[in-house]
Design goal:
single chain; alpha/beta; 6 helices; about 25% helix; about 25% strand
């Protein structure tokens, strides 16, 4: 196990000026991985409690694509559908008939959109690598989903606000991402961190902060699903 205490740095990292979510300046070094395989610094914002890797330690788009191309997301795979069901099941119960939705970050094997279409809803998809059609952001939706995407975002405030602005009053934004614990002992050995395309990590406090900014209601399901509702 790696040292869970704030490590003695082997270099003097340049601290980011602001948080990439709330844009506040209360940012501090949270954890520094000094191993050869996972070398990176991670910072935490004391305002919104987001944990993130600085720009210098994020993968390039080509490195991201190479990693995503390894994903084997098959719409016919019942295990994959069950995994997506963690968000699908609570959200489907909230929707009216014939709702219109957007799956943001649909990946190389879009599946969640098919699951909603099977229940009579209309879906569009967006993915910057596999379905890069920005026209989807010119429409409005009754619901938007984003599964296992938030942890990849380099500019989460921009992306979240863009999605929120596409939601109709009363609409739902469902996000699935594993939540970080607010201590570096857990973070040091957390498998979720060890994927180099995962650069942004959220605590429950982070999503509560975001809900306050949007004046939204927020519900947590299990330990990795959050559903926001926009005020009517």
């Amino acid at each position: 196990m790696q040292n869970s205490k704030q490590p003695d740095t082997i270099h003097s990292p340049a601290k980011p000026d602001t948080c990439i979510l709330c844009h506040g300046s209360n940012v501090r070094l949270f954890y520094q991985d000094v191993t050869e395989q996972y070398r990176s610094d991670y910072y935490q914002c004391d305002t919104c409690r987001l944990i993130f890797a600085p720009e210098r330690h994020r993968p390039t788009p080509q490195e991201e694509l190479e990693r995503y191309d390894q994903h084997n997301n098959d719409p016919e795979d019942e295990r994959y559908r069950a995994f997506l069901g963690r968000l699908f099941n609570p959200l489907i119960r909230l929707l009216g008939k014939n709702s219109k939705g957007l799956d943001f970050g649909s990946g190389p094997g879009p599946t969640l959109n098919i699951m909603f279409e099977e229940q009579g809803h209309t879906m569009r998809i967006y993915d910057p690598f596999y379905a890069d059609d920005p026209s989807v952001f010119g429409e409005t939706y009754d619901f938007i989903t984003s599964t296992e995407v938030a942890e990849h975002l380099h500019t989460p405030r921009h992306e979240f606000d863009r999605l929120w602005n596409c939601l109709r009053p009363g609409g739902y934004l469902g996000i699935m991402t594993k939540l970080a614990e607010d201590d570096n002992e857990h973070f040091a050995d957390w498998h979720y961190r060890l994927d180099n395309t995962h650069v942004t990590f959220y605590t429950k406090q982070t999503f509560r902060w975001l809900a306050r900014q949007w004046n939204a209601t927020l519900d947590f399901y299990e330990n990795n699903v959050m559903i926001f509702q926009k005020s009517s």
